[in-house]
Amino acid sequence: MQEFPEILLDGRLWQIVLLSLQVSLSAVALATCAGLPLGAALAVGRFRGRDSLIVVLNALMGLPPVVVGLFVYMALSRAGPLGAFGLLFTPGAMVIAQTILILPIIAALSRQAVEDAWREYDEQLRSLGAHGLRAALTVLWDIRFSLLTSVLAGLGRASAEVGAVMIVGGNIEGVTRVMTTAIALETSKGDLPLALGLGLVLMTIVLVLNAAAYLVKEAAQRRYG
Hints:
By secondary structure, this protein is an all-alpha fold. The protein has helices at 4-7, 11-44, 50-60, 65-76, 91-127, 132-142, 148-159, 163-169, 179-189, 192-224.
């Protein structure tokens, strides 16, 4: 068993880290593209059933990962409706599962942020003739730096996910093994240096991303007031 300092130079560790970043960032990108417009539409739209949709969206923030993994597994399995694509036990399946998990988080948090901003800009946007989707996208752009919090919350959920990616990815070495599943496996095997190394890298990534987002937001506030 390698010592802890040596494990940080192990190629296996960095292969796992790279795959983890590819999967999580891909899921966050997809969830952001869908979640921000959805949240904005719910914030500025006024239609029958809106309150019920908001309640459902907030409830979906607590989706059990293993349940999501089970449904994605069934959909992607050979007998499932998407089985022909052969995505099960691939990084693509893990991206799908993580996207489903974090989409409600990004949408719900962005809805609240846009709704707060909408109260301030409502009259101004209406006077300029901005309505519906156009108004929602305008508000999204105006508070884009504030929305980093929503995106980071989704990234945090994706980075820490174990259950869903284990089910749909299979934790296959060199193919679908990511940081969280590797930490769980190596801990159960007693290979603590590798588990600690992966944990250290994971924490460092989260801290760097949050620090970068904070600095960007602070710089934007100083520039735009």
